[in-house]
Amino acid sequence: MIFRQLFERESSTYTYLIGCEETREAIFIDAVKSELDNYLKLLTELDLKLICVLDTHTHADHITAAGALRTVTGALTLLGEQANSFCVSKALHDGDEIKVGHILINALHTPGHTSDSYSFILKEQNQTYAFTGDTLLIRGTGRTDFQNGSAAQQYRSLMQKLLTLPDDTWVYPAHDYKGWTRSTIGEEKMHNPRLQVADEGAYVSLMNSLKLPSPALMDIAVPANKACGNS
């Protein structure tokens, strides 16, 4: 498997490139429009054919490169059905499978941060990878106070879905603001302060007590991202 973790500094967004070494097919997860030229250069350098662009959810802090990459490469764009996006090539459903050459990626609906939040799970050589978007961050979890977010739904997404993955599963979030690049499910169970609550009610109280400013680009990014990054 070909794997790259890329970073966009302004929004502290991680973008992931996953490719099949045999077929040279590849996908991007959470691509940022301002990085388009760098993505295209990397695809050329690695001799990869982009077949799909996935977004873990409708982002509020940056504009997706999904539409631009589709225009240039012909790749499909996928986003959760709950986004009600009119422009995507295909709406994602819980349990969908995405094939990248010989690599199989499973789409897992993990709402809470937003109603359309998905995580992407793959296994390669006995190692499980979880691309968790903003549902599970390293030592944190995504806010739940806009875009049909729900702290109760997020608690269930975490406890009933993501935290049931093997403890050695590598966790790759959509953002990190401290420079951390990777964690594991086991690490987060032990050390993530948001997960050390007694029950769902305590988690809801914790999340509802946060006083966070709205993302600076929210009014621009959300409608643009529902249009695949085309304003």
Short description:
This protein is an alpha/beta fold. Helix content is 23%, strand content 29%.
CATH superfamily: Ribonuclease Z/Hydroxyacylglutathione hydrolase-like
Tell me the fraction of residues in β-strands, as a range: 25-35%
User: What is the name of the CATH architecture?
Assistant: 4-Layer Sandwich
Q: Give the helix/strand class.
A: alpha/beta
Question: Helix count, per DSSP?
Answer: 6
CA radius of gyration is 17 Å
Could you characterize what this model shows?
It is globular, with a radius of gyration of 17 Å. 47% of the residues are buried. Helix 3 (151-160) crosses helix 5. It has helices at 36-45, 66-73, 151-160, 185-191, 200-208, 218-226; strands spanning 2-8, 13-19, 25-29, 49-54, 76-80, 90-92, 97-100, 103-109, 118-124, 127-133, 136-137, 140-141, 170-173, 183-184. The strands form 3 sheets. The chain has a 6-stranded mixed beta sheet. Strands 7-8-9-10-13-14 form a 6-stranded mixed beta sheet. It is α/β, with parallel strands linked by helices. The chain has a single domain, classed as 4-Layer Sandwich (Metallo-beta-lactamase, Chain A). The termini are far apart. It contains 6 helices and 14 strands.
Strand-helix topology:
Blueprint: E1 2-8, E2 13-19, E3 25-29, H1 36-45, E4 49-54, H2 66-73, E5 76-80, E6 90-92, E7 97-100, E8 103-109, E9 118-124, E10 127-133, E11 136-137, E12 140-141, H3 151-160, E13 170-173, E14 183-184, H4 185-191, H5 200-208, H6 218-226
Parallel strand pairs: 3-4, 4-5, 5-6, 10-13
Antiparallel strand pairs: 1-2, 2-3, 7-8, 8-9, 9-10, 11-12, 13-14
Helix pairs in contact: 3-5
